[in-house]
Amino acid sequence: MAKGGKEIRNRIKSVKSTQQITKAMKMVAAARLRKSEGRTQASRPYTDTLAGVMRNLASVATEVDHPFLSHVNAEAPKVMLLLFTGDKGLCGSFNANLVKKAEQFIREQRAQGRETEIVFVGKKGWQALGKGGSWFPGFNENTSYADLKPVNAVLTNAYLEGEVAEVHMIYARFINVMKSDPTAVRLLPIQSLEPAGEDEAEGFADNYDLEPSPEELLTALLPRYFQTIMFQAAMENFTSENGARMVAMENATKAAGDMIDALTLEYNKARQAGITLELLDIVGGAEALKG
Predict the structure, then answer these.
(1) How far apart are CA 13 and CA 249, in angstroms?
(2) Which of 61, 259, 274, 281 has fewest C-beta within 10 Å?
(3) Are 216 and 3 in contact, with CB atoms under 8 Å apart?
(4) Which residues of 31-54 are buried (b: 16+ CB within 10 A; e: fewer)?
(5) In a domain, 208, yes or no
(6) Which domain holds residue 106?
(7) Separation of alpha carbons 179 and 278, rounded Å
(8) What is the CA radius of gyration of the chain?
(9) How many domains does the chain have?
């Protein structure tokens, strides 16, 4: 029993140490989640409202010829993919789901005769898909528009120079703590900027006097709108990552507790068996002396 009991005690000690780590990681993820979720939810109305304004402008500014609205080189042999993942693991299937979505996208593009050049935001995607392409560290709860400028430059330069036919993006849209949705959207030409319906466009034109002209406004706002879409995706992705990590660490902490209970029971049984054997030895010795 002595040897077995010592081994079990060491295992209990090891699991308790792991449990302390997972519990601490859960608390850190929860704190980061609270902050990033607040920013994500607060920015959605701005992003949605800006999208509505842009759609209305696109409906009345019909003469605008901007590269963000139509293909610069539709015959280019490749597309560019902006892939958001995390820099770290221990967040369940969060990173794996995004990588799987990217692999599906690559297959679909290859079936159309186009290769995919990937721009990675987050180390896990870069590690999973061959460590090629451009890589940027993952964003966090303090991400600002300025942090996106280097990524923005890589995407827009490749597109405007005609090196890629389109620019797409894959990120995790935050739904709730338990769930996120790996989402693919086309960034360039801007997919979400479909003109508003005729009635909506007429109402917009009737209700607002626009200065400068709708064409000038649309042209000036397109780069800002493009960056806003990326910024919202970065926040959604980071919030989703920390929701997944908090849940994963909570499950790991509970599993460690269950294992500690099972090992404690095993230790008590082994200890009881050892005591029983010692008693039997004592009784046997006493009987031998009597004999």
Answers:
(1) 19
(2) 281
(3) no
(4) ebbeebbeebeeeeeebeebbebb
(5) yes
(6) 27-247
(7) 55
(8) 29
(9) 1
Report which of 174, 166, 214 is spatially closest to residue 36, judged by C-alpha positions. Answer: 174
Residue 49 Rama label (left phi>0; alpha psi -120 to 50; beta): alpha
Positions in the chain short of pLDDT 70: 1-3, 192-208, 286, 291
What integer pLDDT is reported at residue 114 of this predicted model?
A: 96
Which tens digit of pLDDT belongs to each residue from 92-126? 999 999 999 999 999 999 999 999 999 999 999 99
Q: Which residues are catalytic?
A: 91
237-239-244-245 Cα dihedral, nearest 10 degrees: 110
User: Distances from the Cα of 170 to the Cαs of 1, 45, 182, 217, 269, in angstroms?
Assistant: 56, 21, 7, 28, 53
For the record, the structure tokens of 107 come out as: 């297959």
Q: Are 208 and 116 in contact (CB under 8 A)?
A: no
Structural tokens at position 54: 């842009």
Q: Is the pTM of this model over 0.90?
A: no
